[in-house]
Amino acid sequence: MAQFTASVHQNEFLPDGGTDVHAIVTVTASGAGAAGQSGSGDVGEIVIIDTSGSMTGSNIVAAQQAAVAAIDQIHDGVWFAVIGGSHVASLVFPGGRGLGMVRMDAHARAAARAAVASLRADGGTAMGTWLQLAARVFGTVPSLGQRHAILLTDGANQHETPEQLTATIGAVTGQFQCDCRGVGAAWQVDEVRRIATALLGSVDIIPSPDQMAGQFAELMQQAMSRGIADARLRMWVPQGAEILFVRQVAPTVEDLTGRRQEVNPLTGAYPTGSWGDESRDYHVAIRLAAKAIGQEQLAARVQLALGEEVVAQGLVKAQWSNDDTLTTRISPEVAHYTGQTELASMIQDGLAAKAAGDTVTATTKLGRAVQLAAETGNDEATTRLRKVVDIDDAETGTVRLRRSVDKLDEMALDTASTKTTRIKK
Amino acid sequence: MSAATVLRCPGCGDETSAGDRFCEACGEQLVTALATDADATDPAAERAVASEQERAAGVCRSCGGVVGEDGYCQTCGTKAALARDHFDAEPAPWVAMTCDRGVRHRRNEDAGAVSADPEPSSRAVLVVCDGVSSSTDSDVASLAAATAAQQVLSAGRARGIGTPDSQTAAIVARLEAAADAAREAVVASTAADSPDPASCTFVAAVVEDGRIVAGSVGDSRAYWLPDRGEGVALTVDDSMAAELIARGVPREEAESGPQAHAITRWLGVDAPEHTPRTRTQDIDSDGWLLVCSDGLWNYCSEARDLAGLVRRTAAEHDGRPLATTAALVDWANAQGGRDNITVALARLTSGRT
């Protein structure tokens, strides 16, 4: 049986007239078990492989191997399918006339491998059609309580407009989760990140084709270890209070504020997808009406809910005090993640400015990113930043854009921008 | 306390005395090193857990919403009062008591206990005890003391040989027995080896046979407040301020001085003697018997002013005792609520035999 805990890090003391309460809530799950064992329905997995013309050659061979590596990790009994995507999407496996999925067993595994081997690279790229087909395929198995896909692409979404993709993302959001991977340097990080973020998945770069199989096996292993099908973060705030934001801040930064679904007028739920044995940190900020010195109140109840069942709760409090030594203290956890969140946006904004040829803005933003990475001890980010800028002084954020930057390094910096480090104890 | 170092409470900034474990002004714990010694078997820690559970899962006093299992209102988030932090009693429609933590203190170390026969103005007992906040378990001690005293006073029916004087003497004897019982309850509530044994004040008033007999130890008070004419203080404080007043210092000045709240007599293991000083008052007109802690009288000390306050407040609440005690507590909180507040009232009418 899965166990959940929630712990809160904050400075609950507010000065006279203070209104804004910040807290980091760490939610930890253990004993999650394997996917499909929690009794909350069957598990469905779809592998989506880019089969556009640009994949011709070593890429399509590597993609076939990656799809097979993923299929090999799917547990027996899990419903699965394989989709090939170009400017149109087609169901590669299972074959037959209509859409459908099959339960994994030795026979299905062999048949799927054979089907994947027949993939040919041809045509353009319209990822929206891939997502639409995946949603329809998942829809053929009503018993699914956990739906997850892995999407591989190597190029830009040339055969539909950004608006079309946005509309499709909106239409399929909430229907399945999707981890996205881009191979090589010809795909657009922004575009793929939009898909992954909306579908509660991750985005990453696979620099060279020979790394694909390893990554896909790992992704599918992870999916198979998520025994908690679907959890929601719930947040209650007092009447009259305003939610400034709700963010996941570890392991990656994701702004959840706009994803609120009303449970009741004072409580909202934010989808978090499936969970394995893991810990996630959330930064919540609430604006209250100020109370008198000495008054204490609850600013938020932050809960993890499985369906209607609340399995963990953390209390965010507020207490007004006229003691400066209490009210001026900043929670180290809040400070750390505020820095990490800014780091993510500085990297993304800096790279966007660089791409637009705005060297001044790019230098300023990436300089600030270097400074924040150093301050918050995010060595991975520092290492990635070093490949894009020359650092003169990390403490002041003084950097110069490097003359020649490997496009792959720049994309790696971009895709990893939302990855955060936990506070050093 | 050395002249060079002024110790201040980290909670409210008030001056504190060396050796104090809790701030007299707000109840903040001052000696944190001692607190960390607490282990799982510490009775104070166990009590803290117990009182968390007591936290009334009821109606929010701030907005009327429902209090959740976590002790906070499910609508406005206000921390629900502990049952110990705010309670009231109405043993008969003519007698009521409200006891409240106030605004500044972290704990309610006041306590009150009342009982009454159903027939108006017949027989009633009103007891208030104010825990001394420089000791550890004063909240437990004061409640135990008030309850024990009230039980002794309600149970006693001895009337002497029936003359008014012997009746009064019998009630005085009961008050002394009640003070003894209260003291024993205080002593029993702290460990024998405690460096800060609990202590509290004591005031009790008995209504019987058309008269009030009141007695006190410390600075909690009883007043007879007739509907017309002057209010009468039925008790004299055992305090530094009272000694100054006795020496001719004006009341306002004496009661606002640095040692104003230092009491010279109390109930506790370290108290040399605790015989209540008593006074008898015939109920010769309609009026209110008021028994209260300094949480109320701090804001209204003169009997004349208190009489006006109680009359006004009662009039605003149709003369209902419980509504009036609650309103007087609200009034003290509105004045700042610097201390715990206990207010007990009995509505008395003359003409009974």
From TrEMBL, chain A:
Which Gene3D superfamilies does this UniProt record tie to the protein?
1.20.120.1690, 2.60.40.3670, von Willebrand factor, type A domain
| Location of the VWFA domain | 44-223
SMART domains with a match to the protein in the record:
VWA
**Superkingdom assignment:** Bacteria
What InterPro entries does this protein's entry cite?
VWA_3_C, VWF_A, vWFA_dom_sf
**What is the official name of this protein in its record?**
VWA domain-containing protein
Please report the organism this UniProt entry assigns to the protein: Luteipulveratus flavus
TrEMBL record, chain B:
Q: Which PROSITE patterns match?
A: PPM_2
Could you tell me which InterPro entries the record lists for this protein? DZR (IPR025874), PPM-type-like_dom_sf (IPR036457), PPM-type_phosphatase-like_dom (IPR001932)
Q: Which domain of life is it from?
A: Bacteria
All residue ranges annotated as the PPM-type phosphatase domain in the record: 94-348
Gene3D superfamilies xref list:
PPM-type phosphatase domain
**What Pfam family is a match, any one?**
PP2C_2
Coiled coil region boundaries:
none
**What SMART domains does this protein's entry cite?**
PP2C_SIG, PP2Cc
Instruction: List the protein's name.
Output: Serine/threonine-protein phosphatase
Q: Which organism is it from?
A: Luteipulveratus flavus
